[in-house]
Amino acid sequence: MFEPVAPGLARLGILFVNVYALGEPGGPWVLVDAGLSGSAGPIRRAAEERFGARRPPEGILLTHGHFDHAGSARRLADAWDVPLYAHALETPYLTGLSDYPPRDPTMGGAMGHMSRIMPDHGYDLAPRVRTLPPDGGVPGAPRWRWLHTPGHTPGHVSLFRESDGVLLAGDALATMDLDAWGAYLIRRRRFSRPSPPFTCDWATTRDSVERLAELEPAVAAAGHGLPISGTGVATDLRDFARRLTPPRRGRYVGSPPLADERGIEWLPPPVPDPYARVAASGAAIAAGAFLFVAARRKTKR
Q1: From the centroid of its chain, how far is CA 195?
Q2: Fewest beta carbons within 10 Å, which of 6, 169, 181, 255?
Q3: Measuring CA to CA, how many Å separate 263 from each of 41, 95, 122, 208, 260?
Q4: Other CB atoms closer than 10 Å to residue 178's CB: what's the count?
Q5: DSSP summary character for residue 176
Q6: CATH classification of the domain holding 171
Q7: Neighbour-count burial of 66, counting CB atoms closer than 10 A to its CB (0-12 exposed, 13-18 middle, 19+ buried)
Q8: Tally of CB atoms within 10 A around 78
């Protein structure tokens, strides 16, 4: 079920990723992100529980189009007959024009190793896809505004509600340490860098996090991890923005891809993979085990 984060904002966790609902029960609402492939059923059941069986969303807003945020987008949009909203620079990866840059597992860490069995393709969700309005408004959620926060992907967006300082960061950052295996079980709340193997521009990522820190949020929620609230949120986010650094190694650490409204134009060459010999089988086993245990722990909570 959707768990309240703040008035008019609720979170549904599905394995290691979150989707969000903007809106109060009984009123119009918007789904933010669409989870993994196969998540449509749990999302619809949770939405019916919160909003009612005959109350589809005004639309689905995608912070970006990676597999864990857009995996069930088509199934949900077709079932509800609603549009999918995204930034103009994200639409090439949602309308079949381009794939994302290849994932880069060479920096290691938990998500780096798990990414070896994760997809990095784009989607063709046309004609459902609509471009977000240029004035920053969120269709169906008038109190919210969207902010372009590129780096993780070229057209990544975050959401902010200025009236009470609620930030929905998407994957501009995480609220758990995605590099640490134990974090997927302990789920300690802390600001951390976005998923390293899927982040293509680290300098721009830092600029985006600094921009979010300037908002001085009172509540911060993200695509991965549990929401953070309390008197120290703004200070902690500023501190994180100052110390954010890229991984020590990686294909995109020193040279990001070039992209425009048609998608990827140029990719830096691959780099040596120090983990290649043992990673493939180990990553599959470890990822499956950790996510299975994490799912069981979540079910028991």
Answers
A1: 9
A2: 255
A3: 31, 10, 10, 20, 5
A4: 24
A5: S
A6: 3.60.15.10
A7: buried
A8: 12
Residues 55-108: pLDDT tens digits? Answer: 999 999 999 999 999 999 999 999 999 999 999 999 999 999 999 999 999 999
Number of domains forming the structure of the chain: 1
Domain limits for position 277: 3-300
Q: What is the pLDDT of residues 100-145, one digit of tens each?
A: 999 999 999 999 999 999 999 999 999 999 999 999 999 999 999 9
Ramachandran category for residue 243: left, alpha or beta (phi over 0 → left; psi -120 to 50 → alpha): alpha
pLDDT at 292 over 90: no
Quote the tokens at residue 63: 């912070």
Reference 167, options 14, 16, 17, 22; nearest CA is: 22
**Residues facing 124 on adjacent strands:** 95
Torsions phi, psi for 289 (to 5 deg)? -65, -45
Q: Which helix (H) or strand (E) holds 191?
A: none
